[in-house]
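A quick aside before the break. I want you to see a complete sequence-to-structure record at least once, exactly as it would be stored in a machine-readable document. Don't worry about memorizing anything.
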Amino acid sequence: MMIISKVKRFLLKRKLGILGKNIDITPNSIFGNHENIIWHDNIYIGPYAYIWAIGGLEICENVIIGPRITIHTSNHRYEGATMLPYDGYTYLKKVTIEKNVWIGDNVSLVPGVTIGEGSVVAMGSVVTKDVPKCSIVGGNPARVLKQRDLKLYNELENNKMYYMRLKQLRGIKQVFLNG
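That is the input. The structure line, written in tokens, reads:
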């Protein structure tokens, strides 16, 4: 079973054109218009991702995306449409996920949003507007709940303490905490 999973990951990474980068994507994910995705290093995308990138998508370095992410980069025209419920026009709007972002389980990103550097998007959120740098957001629609500790963030950034990079270099032991 483990060998089949590794082969599926390899084939998916080859299809997406990301061989040789430290990118971990589960093979049961769906990518539409994958040629419009800009991939940086040290990225993890959890199971059952649904990413439709016709309008463009950039995933910057050190991004962790939980299971069941939905990303759309286009939308149908309904205002001023010549048909119902919408017509044949499609708006293309790039989505950008800046560096050091963590996106939780079952999050939806709508066309045109930018997730700011160092931000955390809580599980189940629907992001309809840009997320400011180092913000923790949650809800539907997502709103800013608080800010990261910028002193600690800058210290970790300056020391290149990136989870996916360190995991690849030396492995990381999983530690469970209560509370």
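Two observations worth writing down. The mean pLDDT is 93. DSSP finds three helices and 18 strands in the chain. We'll return to this after the break.
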